[in-house]
Amino acid sequence: MSEESAPGPKESPPAAPRAGSREVWKKGGRLLSVLLAVNVLLLACTLISGGAFNKVAVYDTDVFALLTTMMLLASLWILFYLLRTVRCPDAVPYQDAHAGPIWLRGGLVLFGICTLVMDVFKTGYYSSFFECQSAIKILHPLTQAVFVIVQTYFLWVSSKDCIHVHLDLTRCGLMFTLTTNLAIWMAAIVDESVHQTHSYDSSHSNASHLRLTPDPERAGSSVGGDCSCNTAICQIFQQGYFYLYPFNIEYSLFASTMLYVMWKNVGRLLASSTHGHGHGHGHTPSRVSLFRETLFAGPILGLMLFVVGLAVFIIYEVQVSGEGGRTQQALVIYYSFNIICLGLMTLVSLSGSIIYRFDRRAMDHHKNPTRTLDVALLVGAALGQYAISYYSLVAVVVGTPRDLLGGLNLAHALLMIAQHTFQNVFIIESLHRGPPGAEPHDTTPKESCHGLTFANLDALHTLPACPPTPRLVGTNPVGPQETMAIILAPRGHWRRRCLKDISLFLLLCNVILWIMPAFGARPHFSNTVEVDFYGYSLWAAIVNICLPFGIFYRMHAVSSLLEVYVLS
Question: What range defines the domain where residue 235 resides?
Protein backbone atom coordinates (compact mmCIF):
# COMPACT_ATOMS: atom_id res chain seq x y z
CA MET A 1 0.00 0.00 0.00
CA SER A 2 1.52 3.30 -1.02
CA GLU A 3 1.74 6.36 1.18
CA GLU A 4 -1.10 8.78 1.10
CA SER A 5 1.00 11.56 -0.38
CA ALA A 6 2.52 9.42 -3.10
CA PRO A 7 1.42 9.96 -6.71
CA GLY A 8 -1.03 7.56 -8.22
CA PRO A 9 0.33 4.38 -9.84
CA LYS A 10 0.32 3.91 -13.58
CA GLU A 11 -2.37 1.28 -13.29
CA SER A 12 -4.70 3.73 -11.55
CA PRO A 13 -8.12 4.29 -13.08
CA PRO A 14 -8.75 7.50 -15.03
CA ALA A 15 -10.37 9.27 -12.05
CA ALA A 16 -7.27 9.01 -9.86
CA PRO A 17 -5.02 11.52 -11.68
CA ARG A 18 -7.81 14.14 -11.68
CA ALA A 19 -8.34 13.70 -7.94
CA GLY A 20 -4.62 13.42 -7.32
CA SER A 21 -4.12 16.93 -8.61
CA ARG A 22 -6.21 18.19 -5.68
CA GLU A 23 -4.11 16.45 -3.06
CA VAL A 24 -2.06 19.62 -2.54
CA TRP A 25 -5.17 21.09 -0.83
CA LYS A 26 -5.75 18.06 1.39
CA LYS A 27 -4.60 19.76 4.60
CA GLY A 28 -6.70 22.80 3.82
CA GLY A 29 -9.81 20.68 3.22
CA ARG A 30 -9.22 18.72 6.40
CA LEU A 31 -8.68 21.90 8.40
CA LEU A 32 -11.94 23.36 7.07
CA SER A 33 -13.91 20.25 7.99
CA VAL A 34 -12.33 20.04 11.46
CA LEU A 35 -13.13 23.69 12.18
CA LEU A 36 -16.74 23.08 11.13
CA ALA A 37 -16.95 20.04 13.40
CA VAL A 38 -15.39 21.84 16.37
CA ASN A 39 -17.79 24.77 16.16
CA VAL A 40 -20.89 22.59 15.77
CA LEU A 41 -19.75 20.27 18.57
CA LEU A 42 -19.08 23.16 20.95
CA LEU A 43 -22.55 24.55 20.27
CA ALA A 44 -24.12 21.15 20.92
CA CYS A 45 -22.05 20.64 24.10
CA THR A 46 -23.09 24.05 25.41
CA LEU A 47 -26.80 23.36 24.99
CA ILE A 48 -26.64 19.76 26.21
CA SER A 49 -24.58 20.49 29.31
CA GLY A 50 -26.59 23.62 30.09
CA GLY A 51 -29.83 21.66 29.90
CA ALA A 52 -28.58 19.28 32.57
CA PHE A 53 -28.73 21.91 35.33
CA ASN A 54 -31.99 23.16 36.75
CA LYS A 55 -30.64 26.69 37.30
CA VAL A 56 -29.78 27.21 33.61
CA ALA A 57 -32.56 28.47 31.35
CA VAL A 58 -31.88 25.86 28.66
CA TYR A 59 -34.61 23.27 28.29
CA ASP A 60 -34.53 19.84 26.75
CA THR A 61 -36.80 21.08 23.95
CA ASP A 62 -33.90 23.29 22.83
CA VAL A 63 -31.56 20.31 22.85
CA PHE A 64 -34.05 18.13 20.99
CA ALA A 65 -34.56 20.83 18.37
CA LEU A 66 -30.81 21.12 17.76
CA LEU A 67 -30.27 17.35 17.57
CA THR A 68 -33.26 16.90 15.27
CA THR A 69 -31.94 19.57 12.91
CA MET A 70 -28.46 18.03 12.90
CA MET A 71 -29.81 14.53 12.18
CA LEU A 72 -31.97 15.80 9.33
CA LEU A 73 -29.05 17.66 7.72
CA ALA A 74 -26.75 14.65 8.15
CA SER A 75 -29.36 12.33 6.62
CA LEU A 76 -29.76 14.64 3.62
CA TRP A 77 -26.01 14.71 3.07
CA ILE A 78 -25.79 10.91 3.31
CA LEU A 79 -28.51 10.56 0.67
CA PHE A 80 -26.61 13.00 -1.56
CA TYR A 81 -23.41 10.97 -1.10
CA LEU A 82 -25.11 7.68 -1.95
CA LEU A 83 -26.80 9.19 -5.02
CA ARG A 84 -23.53 10.75 -6.20
CA THR A 85 -21.51 7.55 -5.89
CA VAL A 86 -24.21 5.50 -7.63
CA ARG A 87 -24.45 7.89 -10.58
CA CYS A 88 -20.66 8.25 -10.87
CA PRO A 89 -18.92 4.85 -10.58
CA ASP A 90 -15.48 6.47 -10.94
CA ALA A 91 -16.07 8.51 -7.79
CA VAL A 92 -14.69 5.64 -5.67
CA PRO A 93 -11.66 4.25 -7.55
CA TYR A 94 -10.21 2.55 -4.46
CA GLN A 95 -11.47 0.77 -1.37
CA ASP A 96 -9.58 0.41 1.90
CA ALA A 97 -9.87 -3.27 2.80
CA HIS A 98 -8.84 -2.59 6.40
CA ALA A 99 -11.76 -0.22 6.98
CA GLY A 100 -15.20 -1.40 8.08
CA PRO A 101 -14.51 -5.06 8.94
CA ILE A 102 -17.54 -7.32 9.08
CA TRP A 103 -17.57 -7.59 12.90
CA LEU A 104 -17.56 -3.80 13.24
CA ARG A 105 -20.41 -3.40 10.76
CA GLY A 106 -22.26 -6.28 12.42
CA GLY A 107 -21.92 -4.60 15.80
CA LEU A 108 -23.16 -1.36 14.26
CA VAL A 109 -26.27 -3.12 12.93
CA LEU A 110 -26.92 -4.81 16.30
CA PHE A 111 -26.64 -1.56 18.26
CA GLY A 112 -28.65 0.22 15.58
CA ILE A 113 -31.54 -2.23 15.99
CA CYS A 114 -31.48 -1.71 19.77
CA THR A 115 -31.45 2.06 19.19
CA LEU A 116 -34.56 1.74 17.03
CA VAL A 117 -36.26 -0.17 19.84
CA MET A 118 -35.22 2.60 22.24
CA ASP A 119 -36.76 5.19 19.90
CA VAL A 120 -40.01 3.23 19.94
CA PHE A 121 -40.02 3.26 23.76
CA LYS A 122 -39.13 6.94 23.83
CA THR A 123 -41.93 7.79 21.41
CA GLY A 124 -44.40 5.78 23.47
CA TYR A 125 -43.22 7.46 26.68
CA TYR A 126 -43.67 11.03 25.41
CA SER A 127 -46.91 10.12 23.67
CA SER A 128 -48.33 9.07 27.06
CA PHE A 129 -48.76 12.72 28.02
CA PHE A 130 -48.79 14.38 24.62
CA GLU A 131 -51.23 17.09 25.75
CA CYS A 132 -48.66 18.85 27.95
CA GLN A 133 -45.49 18.12 25.98
CA SER A 134 -43.89 19.87 23.06
CA ALA A 135 -44.20 18.13 19.68
CA ILE A 136 -40.41 18.18 19.28
CA LYS A 137 -40.13 15.51 22.00
CA ILE A 138 -42.02 13.08 19.78
CA LEU A 139 -40.41 14.29 16.56
CA HIS A 140 -36.90 13.75 17.98
CA PRO A 141 -37.02 9.93 18.43
CA LEU A 142 -38.80 9.54 15.09
CA THR A 143 -36.09 11.58 13.36
CA GLN A 144 -33.40 9.59 15.17
CA ALA A 145 -34.93 6.35 13.91
CA VAL A 146 -34.76 7.61 10.31
CA PHE A 147 -31.19 8.83 10.86
CA VAL A 148 -30.10 5.47 12.30
CA ILE A 149 -31.56 3.54 9.37
CA VAL A 150 -30.02 5.82 6.74
CA GLN A 151 -26.62 6.00 8.45
CA THR A 152 -26.41 2.25 9.10
CA TYR A 153 -27.05 1.49 5.43
CA PHE A 154 -24.55 4.16 4.42
CA LEU A 155 -21.78 2.77 6.64
CA TRP A 156 -22.55 -0.81 5.62
CA VAL A 157 -22.07 -0.12 1.90
CA SER A 158 -19.59 2.78 1.94
CA SER A 159 -17.30 2.37 4.95
CA LYS A 160 -14.42 1.18 2.73
CA ASP A 161 -14.72 4.00 0.18
CA CYS A 162 -11.78 6.17 -0.83
CA ILE A 163 -13.83 8.78 -2.65
CA HIS A 164 -12.17 11.10 -5.19
CA VAL A 165 -14.91 13.62 -6.04
CA HIS A 166 -16.17 16.66 -4.12
CA LEU A 167 -13.29 16.21 -1.67
CA ASP A 168 -13.88 19.25 0.54
CA LEU A 169 -17.66 18.79 0.56
CA THR A 170 -17.25 15.12 1.44
CA ARG A 171 -14.84 15.87 4.26
CA CYS A 172 -17.19 18.49 5.71
CA GLY A 173 -20.18 16.16 5.36
CA LEU A 174 -18.40 13.28 7.07
CA MET A 175 -17.18 15.52 9.88
CA PHE A 176 -20.66 16.98 10.36
CA THR A 177 -22.17 13.49 10.53
CA LEU A 178 -19.45 12.43 12.98
CA THR A 179 -20.21 15.51 15.10
CA THR A 180 -23.91 14.63 15.03
CA ASN A 181 -23.12 11.18 16.44
CA LEU A 182 -20.93 12.68 19.16
CA ALA A 183 -23.70 15.12 20.09
CA ILE A 184 -26.19 12.24 20.33
CA TRP A 185 -23.66 10.35 22.46
CA MET A 186 -23.19 13.28 24.81
CA ALA A 187 -26.95 13.85 25.11
CA ALA A 188 -27.42 10.18 26.03
CA ILE A 189 -24.59 10.37 28.58
CA VAL A 190 -26.08 13.47 30.20
CA ASP A 191 -29.59 11.99 30.32
CA GLU A 192 -28.28 8.79 31.87
CA SER A 193 -26.19 10.73 34.40
CA VAL A 194 -29.19 12.85 35.38
CA HIS A 195 -31.24 9.68 35.76
CA GLN A 196 -28.56 8.09 37.96
CA THR A 197 -28.29 11.26 40.03
CA HIS A 198 -32.05 11.40 40.50
CA SER A 199 -32.01 7.77 41.65
CA TYR A 200 -29.21 8.56 44.10
CA ASP A 201 -31.11 11.57 45.44
CA SER A 202 -34.13 9.40 46.11
CA SER A 203 -32.13 7.30 48.58
CA HIS A 204 -29.66 9.93 49.87
CA SER A 205 -31.33 13.12 50.97
CA ASN A 206 -28.14 14.63 52.37
CA ALA A 207 -26.36 15.10 49.05
CA SER A 208 -24.98 18.47 48.12
CA HIS A 209 -27.35 21.00 46.63
CA LEU A 210 -24.84 21.81 43.85
CA ARG A 211 -25.17 18.43 42.19
CA LEU A 212 -26.73 17.70 38.85
CA THR A 213 -30.49 17.65 39.24
CA PRO A 214 -33.15 16.79 36.69
CA ASP A 215 -34.65 19.77 34.99
CA PRO A 216 -38.45 19.93 35.41
CA GLU A 217 -38.84 20.10 31.65
CA ARG A 218 -36.52 17.14 31.23
CA ALA A 219 -38.11 14.68 33.67
CA GLY A 220 -41.84 14.91 33.19
CA SER A 221 -42.45 11.96 35.45
CA SER A 222 -40.98 13.77 38.45
CA VAL A 223 -42.88 17.04 38.38
CA GLY A 224 -46.35 15.69 38.82
CA GLY A 225 -49.39 17.51 37.50
CA ASP A 226 -50.68 16.77 34.05
CA CYS A 227 -47.30 15.39 32.91
CA SER A 228 -46.95 12.74 35.60
CA CYS A 229 -46.19 9.23 34.37
CA ASN A 230 -48.73 7.27 36.39
CA THR A 231 -49.89 4.54 34.02
CA ALA A 232 -48.14 1.17 33.90
CA ILE A 233 -47.45 1.38 30.17
CA CYS A 234 -45.87 4.81 30.60
CA GLN A 235 -43.53 3.52 33.29
CA ILE A 236 -42.58 0.53 31.14
CA PHE A 237 -41.69 2.87 28.28
CA GLN A 238 -39.69 5.10 30.61
CA GLN A 239 -37.67 2.30 32.19
CA GLY A 240 -37.28 0.58 28.83
CA TYR A 241 -35.60 3.42 27.02
CA PHE A 242 -33.27 4.13 29.96
CA TYR A 243 -32.09 0.52 29.92
CA LEU A 244 -31.52 0.73 26.16
CA TYR A 245 -29.36 3.85 26.42
CA PRO A 246 -26.08 1.83 26.50
CA PHE A 247 -26.81 0.45 23.03
CA ASN A 248 -27.54 3.92 21.71
CA ILE A 249 -24.28 5.18 23.21
CA GLU A 250 -22.25 2.37 21.63
CA TYR A 251 -23.99 2.85 18.28
CA SER A 252 -22.98 6.51 18.18
CA LEU A 253 -19.37 5.70 19.05
CA PHE A 254 -19.14 2.84 16.53
CA ALA A 255 -20.51 5.11 13.81
CA SER A 256 -18.10 7.89 14.81
CA THR A 257 -15.05 5.65 14.48
CA MET A 258 -16.13 4.40 11.04
CA LEU A 259 -16.87 7.93 9.85
CA TYR A 260 -13.45 9.09 10.99
CA VAL A 261 -11.75 6.36 8.94
CA MET A 262 -13.84 7.36 5.91
CA TRP A 263 -12.78 10.98 6.48
CA LYS A 264 -9.11 9.93 6.52
CA ASN A 265 -9.62 7.97 3.29
CA VAL A 266 -11.09 10.86 1.29
CA GLY A 267 -8.81 11.40 -1.71
CA ARG A 268 -6.49 8.60 -0.64
CA LEU A 269 -4.41 6.89 -3.34
CA LEU A 270 -3.78 3.17 -2.93
CA ALA A 271 -1.75 0.66 -4.86
CA SER A 272 -3.44 -0.91 -7.87
CA SER A 273 -3.66 -4.23 -6.03
CA THR A 274 -6.27 -2.66 -3.76
CA HIS A 275 -8.35 -1.17 -6.55
CA GLY A 276 -12.03 -1.76 -6.16
CA HIS A 277 -11.75 -4.54 -3.63
CA GLY A 278 -9.35 -6.93 -2.04
CA HIS A 279 -7.21 -6.81 1.05
CA GLY A 280 -4.16 -4.65 0.89
CA HIS A 281 -1.86 -7.01 2.77
CA GLY A 282 -3.91 -10.13 3.03
CA HIS A 283 -4.31 -9.98 6.79
CA THR A 284 -7.94 -11.04 7.03
CA PRO A 285 -8.70 -14.67 6.24
CA SER A 286 -11.48 -15.44 3.84
CA ARG A 287 -13.31 -17.56 6.39
CA VAL A 288 -13.45 -17.20 10.14
CA SER A 289 -14.38 -20.24 12.19
CA LEU A 290 -15.07 -19.54 15.86
CA PHE A 291 -13.22 -21.84 18.28
CA ARG A 292 -11.17 -23.26 15.39
CA GLU A 293 -7.67 -24.30 16.46
CA THR A 294 -8.22 -23.30 20.09
CA LEU A 295 -7.43 -25.22 23.24
CA PHE A 296 -11.00 -24.49 24.49
CA ALA A 297 -9.60 -23.47 27.89
CA GLY A 298 -9.97 -19.76 27.10
CA PRO A 299 -13.55 -19.89 25.77
CA ILE A 300 -14.73 -22.19 28.58
CA LEU A 301 -13.15 -20.11 31.36
CA GLY A 302 -14.41 -16.93 29.72
CA LEU A 303 -17.96 -18.27 29.49
CA MET A 304 -17.83 -19.32 33.14
CA LEU A 305 -16.76 -15.85 34.22
CA PHE A 306 -19.42 -14.33 31.95
CA VAL A 307 -22.21 -16.39 33.56
CA VAL A 308 -20.91 -15.78 37.08
CA GLY A 309 -20.60 -12.08 36.28
CA LEU A 310 -24.23 -11.90 35.18
CA ALA A 311 -25.30 -13.54 38.44
CA VAL A 312 -23.15 -11.13 40.47
CA PHE A 313 -24.58 -8.17 38.57
CA ILE A 314 -28.17 -9.29 39.24
CA ILE A 315 -27.42 -9.88 42.94
CA TYR A 316 -25.76 -6.47 43.19
CA GLU A 317 -28.67 -4.64 41.55
CA VAL A 318 -31.27 -6.42 43.70
CA GLN A 319 -29.47 -5.92 47.02
CA VAL A 320 -28.42 -2.32 46.42
CA SER A 321 -31.83 -1.15 45.23
CA GLY A 322 -33.80 -3.26 47.71
CA GLU A 323 -34.87 -2.50 51.23
CA GLY A 324 -32.55 -3.16 54.13
CA GLY A 325 -28.83 -2.76 54.77
CA ARG A 326 -27.49 -5.33 52.33
CA THR A 327 -25.41 -2.86 50.34
CA GLN A 328 -22.22 -3.85 52.15
CA GLN A 329 -22.66 -7.52 51.23
CA ALA A 330 -23.46 -6.60 47.61
CA LEU A 331 -20.31 -4.48 47.35
CA VAL A 332 -18.13 -7.27 48.78
CA ILE A 333 -19.50 -9.73 46.21
CA TYR A 334 -19.15 -7.20 43.39
CA TYR A 335 -15.56 -6.21 44.23
CA SER A 336 -14.52 -9.83 44.85
CA PHE A 337 -15.70 -10.92 41.41
CA ASN A 338 -14.05 -7.95 39.71
CA ILE A 339 -10.77 -8.57 41.52
CA ILE A 340 -10.72 -12.22 40.39
CA CYS A 341 -11.70 -11.31 36.83
CA LEU A 342 -9.24 -8.43 36.51
CA GLY A 343 -6.44 -10.51 38.05
CA LEU A 344 -6.96 -13.33 35.55
CA MET A 345 -7.18 -10.86 32.66
CA THR A 346 -3.91 -9.24 33.74
CA LEU A 347 -2.10 -12.57 33.91
CA VAL A 348 -3.52 -13.73 30.59
CA SER A 349 -2.60 -10.47 28.85
CA LEU A 350 0.91 -10.68 30.25
CA SER A 351 1.13 -14.31 29.03
CA GLY A 352 0.11 -13.21 25.54
CA SER A 353 2.85 -10.59 25.47
CA ILE A 354 5.37 -13.21 26.58
CA ILE A 355 4.22 -15.58 23.82
CA TYR A 356 4.91 -12.84 21.28
CA ARG A 357 8.56 -12.89 22.34
CA PHE A 358 8.75 -16.32 20.67
CA ASP A 359 6.69 -15.29 17.63
CA ARG A 360 8.73 -14.97 14.44
CA ARG A 361 6.06 -13.14 12.48
CA ALA A 362 7.24 -9.86 11.02
CA MET A 363 5.79 -6.59 12.29
CA ASP A 364 3.44 -4.83 9.88
CA HIS A 365 4.58 -1.24 9.34
CA HIS A 366 2.26 -0.40 6.45
CA LYS A 367 0.09 2.70 6.59
CA ASN A 368 -3.27 1.76 8.10
CA PRO A 369 -5.64 4.54 9.29
CA THR A 370 -8.01 2.01 10.86
CA ARG A 371 -5.31 0.48 13.03
CA THR A 372 -3.97 3.91 13.98
CA LEU A 373 -7.44 4.94 15.14
CA ASP A 374 -7.93 1.68 17.06
CA VAL A 375 -4.70 2.22 18.98
CA ALA A 376 -5.53 5.86 19.73
CA LEU A 377 -9.01 4.96 20.98
CA LEU A 378 -7.71 2.15 23.19
CA VAL A 379 -5.12 4.39 24.82
CA GLY A 380 -7.39 7.44 25.04
CA ALA A 381 -10.46 5.63 26.37
CA ALA A 382 -8.37 3.89 29.03
CA LEU A 383 -7.55 7.29 30.53
CA GLY A 384 -11.09 7.54 31.89
CA GLN A 385 -10.77 4.39 33.97
CA TYR A 386 -7.22 5.36 34.96
CA ALA A 387 -8.56 8.64 36.39
CA ILE A 388 -11.32 6.94 38.41
CA SER A 389 -8.88 4.34 39.74
CA TYR A 390 -6.29 6.90 40.86
CA TYR A 391 -8.94 9.02 42.57
CA SER A 392 -10.11 5.88 44.37
CA LEU A 393 -6.53 5.01 45.35
CA VAL A 394 -6.01 8.40 46.98
CA ALA A 395 -9.35 8.25 48.78
CA VAL A 396 -8.71 4.76 50.18
CA VAL A 397 -5.06 5.34 51.17
CA VAL A 398 -5.51 8.80 52.68
CA GLY A 399 -9.02 8.26 54.02
CA THR A 400 -9.68 7.05 57.54
CA PRO A 401 -11.63 3.75 56.99
CA ARG A 402 -9.46 0.64 57.20
CA ASP A 403 -12.01 -2.12 56.74
CA LEU A 404 -12.59 -5.02 54.35
CA LEU A 405 -14.42 -2.87 51.84
CA GLY A 406 -11.56 -0.38 51.75
CA GLY A 407 -9.07 -3.16 51.08
CA LEU A 408 -11.21 -4.58 48.28
CA ASN A 409 -11.59 -1.12 46.78
CA LEU A 410 -7.83 -0.61 46.88
CA ALA A 411 -7.11 -3.97 45.23
CA HIS A 412 -9.80 -3.29 42.62
CA ALA A 413 -8.29 0.09 41.69
CA LEU A 414 -4.75 -1.32 41.42
CA LEU A 415 -5.84 -4.29 39.32
CA MET A 416 -7.95 -2.05 37.07
CA ILE A 417 -4.84 0.01 36.25
CA ALA A 418 -2.70 -3.09 35.67
CA GLN A 419 -5.34 -4.83 33.56
CA HIS A 420 -5.84 -1.85 31.24
CA THR A 421 -2.08 -1.44 30.84
CA PHE A 422 -1.22 -5.06 30.01
CA GLN A 423 -4.31 -5.60 27.86
CA ASN A 424 -3.48 -2.52 25.79
CA VAL A 425 0.09 -3.72 25.31
CA PHE A 426 -1.15 -7.13 24.17
CA ILE A 427 -3.81 -5.79 21.78
CA ILE A 428 -1.59 -3.12 20.23
CA GLU A 429 1.25 -5.56 19.61
CA SER A 430 -1.22 -8.08 18.17
CA LEU A 431 -2.64 -5.53 15.73
CA HIS A 432 0.87 -4.77 14.47
CA ARG A 433 1.80 -8.40 13.89
CA GLY A 434 1.81 -9.81 10.38
CA PRO A 435 -0.58 -12.57 9.31
CA PRO A 436 0.16 -16.27 9.93
CA GLY A 437 3.05 -17.34 7.73
CA ALA A 438 4.60 -13.87 7.63
CA GLU A 439 7.90 -14.95 9.18
CA PRO A 440 10.94 -13.19 7.74
CA HIS A 441 12.10 -16.41 6.05
CA ASP A 442 8.77 -17.01 4.30
CA THR A 443 10.00 -16.62 0.75
CA THR A 444 13.26 -18.56 1.00
CA PRO A 445 12.80 -22.35 1.01
CA LYS A 446 15.44 -23.76 3.34
CA GLU A 447 15.70 -26.81 5.56
CA SER A 448 12.40 -26.34 7.38
CA CYS A 449 8.95 -26.23 5.87
CA HIS A 450 7.32 -24.27 8.69
CA GLY A 451 5.74 -21.03 7.46
CA LEU A 452 7.11 -21.31 3.89
CA THR A 453 5.18 -19.95 0.93
CA PHE A 454 5.49 -21.65 -2.46
CA ALA A 455 4.34 -20.34 -5.82
CA ASN A 456 4.13 -23.74 -7.50
CA LEU A 457 2.70 -26.99 -6.23
CA ASP A 458 5.54 -28.99 -7.83
CA ALA A 459 8.04 -27.22 -5.60
CA LEU A 460 6.65 -29.13 -2.66
CA HIS A 461 8.18 -32.40 -3.84
CA THR A 462 11.68 -30.91 -4.14
CA LEU A 463 12.00 -30.33 -0.38
CA PRO A 464 13.20 -33.51 1.38
CA ALA A 465 12.84 -31.90 4.82
CA CYS A 466 9.10 -31.54 4.47
CA PRO A 467 6.88 -33.98 6.34
CA PRO A 468 5.24 -36.55 4.06
CA THR A 469 1.67 -35.25 4.64
CA PRO A 470 1.69 -31.53 5.24
CA ARG A 471 -1.57 -29.78 5.97
CA LEU A 472 -2.63 -27.07 3.56
CA VAL A 473 -3.94 -24.09 5.47
CA GLY A 474 -5.05 -22.06 2.44
CA THR A 475 -4.96 -22.32 -1.34
CA ASN A 476 -5.76 -19.45 -3.66
CA PRO A 477 -5.72 -20.01 -7.44
CA VAL A 478 -4.04 -17.14 -9.25
CA GLY A 479 -4.47 -18.09 -12.91
CA PRO A 480 -4.80 -20.80 -15.51
CA GLN A 481 -1.17 -21.91 -15.03
CA GLU A 482 -2.13 -24.25 -12.16
CA THR A 483 -0.12 -22.14 -9.74
CA MET A 484 -1.35 -21.49 -6.23
CA ALA A 485 -0.09 -19.97 -2.99
CA ILE A 486 0.26 -22.55 -0.24
CA ILE A 487 1.03 -21.81 3.37
CA LEU A 488 2.22 -24.75 5.42
CA ALA A 489 1.72 -24.88 9.15
CA PRO A 490 2.10 -27.73 11.63
CA ARG A 491 -1.14 -29.07 13.06
CA GLY A 492 -2.06 -27.51 16.36
CA HIS A 493 0.61 -24.82 16.46
CA TRP A 494 0.85 -24.07 20.16
CA ARG A 495 1.48 -20.35 19.85
CA ARG A 496 -1.46 -19.77 17.55
CA ARG A 497 -3.79 -21.85 19.72
CA CYS A 498 -2.72 -20.02 22.88
CA LEU A 499 -3.19 -16.61 21.27
CA LYS A 500 -6.68 -17.55 20.07
CA ASP A 501 -7.61 -18.77 23.56
CA ILE A 502 -6.25 -15.60 25.12
CA SER A 503 -8.19 -13.42 22.67
CA LEU A 504 -11.50 -15.21 23.29
CA PHE A 505 -11.03 -15.20 27.06
CA LEU A 506 -10.29 -11.47 27.15
CA LEU A 507 -13.17 -10.81 24.76
CA LEU A 508 -15.75 -12.52 26.97
CA CYS A 509 -14.38 -10.86 30.11
CA ASN A 510 -14.56 -7.43 28.49
CA VAL A 511 -18.17 -8.07 27.51
CA ILE A 512 -19.25 -8.77 31.09
CA LEU A 513 -17.20 -5.81 32.37
CA TRP A 514 -19.04 -3.66 29.81
CA ILE A 515 -22.48 -4.96 30.79
CA MET A 516 -22.09 -4.15 34.50
CA PRO A 517 -21.46 -0.38 34.33
CA ALA A 518 -23.39 0.11 31.10
CA PHE A 519 -26.61 -1.20 32.65
CA GLY A 520 -26.44 0.69 35.90
CA ALA A 521 -23.90 -0.81 38.32
CA ARG A 522 -22.45 2.18 40.22
CA PRO A 523 -20.34 0.95 43.14
CA HIS A 524 -18.65 4.36 42.99
CA PHE A 525 -21.70 5.81 44.77
CA SER A 526 -22.83 2.76 46.74
CA ASN A 527 -19.39 2.69 48.34
CA THR A 528 -19.26 5.89 50.36
CA VAL A 529 -15.45 6.05 50.73
CA GLU A 530 -14.94 8.35 47.72
CA VAL A 531 -18.19 10.25 48.32
CA ASP A 532 -17.16 11.09 51.90
CA PHE A 533 -13.59 11.95 50.88
CA TYR A 534 -14.24 14.17 47.85
CA GLY A 535 -17.83 15.21 48.46
CA TYR A 536 -20.70 14.16 46.25
CA SER A 537 -20.46 17.07 43.79
CA LEU A 538 -16.80 16.53 42.84
CA TRP A 539 -17.00 12.73 42.85
CA ALA A 540 -20.17 12.72 40.73
CA ALA A 541 -18.48 15.01 38.19
CA ILE A 542 -15.41 12.74 38.03
CA VAL A 543 -17.46 9.57 37.56
CA ASN A 544 -19.95 11.05 35.10
CA ILE A 545 -17.14 12.40 32.90
CA CYS A 546 -14.69 9.49 33.08
CA LEU A 547 -16.95 6.43 33.31
CA PRO A 548 -18.42 6.78 29.77
CA PHE A 549 -14.90 6.51 28.38
CA GLY A 550 -14.28 3.41 30.50
CA ILE A 551 -17.49 1.84 29.19
CA PHE A 552 -16.54 2.65 25.62
CA TYR A 553 -13.09 1.15 26.22
CA ARG A 554 -14.61 -2.24 27.02
CA MET A 555 -16.67 -2.43 23.85
CA HIS A 556 -13.84 -1.14 21.68
CA ALA A 557 -11.52 -3.72 23.26
CA VAL A 558 -14.05 -6.41 22.29
CA SER A 559 -13.90 -5.26 18.67
CA SER A 560 -10.09 -5.16 18.69
CA LEU A 561 -9.80 -8.58 20.37
CA LEU A 562 -12.06 -10.09 17.74
CA GLU A 563 -9.68 -8.78 15.12
CA VAL A 564 -6.73 -10.17 17.10
CA TYR A 565 -8.47 -13.57 17.16
CA VAL A 566 -8.93 -13.51 13.40
CA LEU A 567 -5.31 -12.50 12.75
CA SER A 568 -3.79 -15.05 15.16
Answer: 29-203+230-265
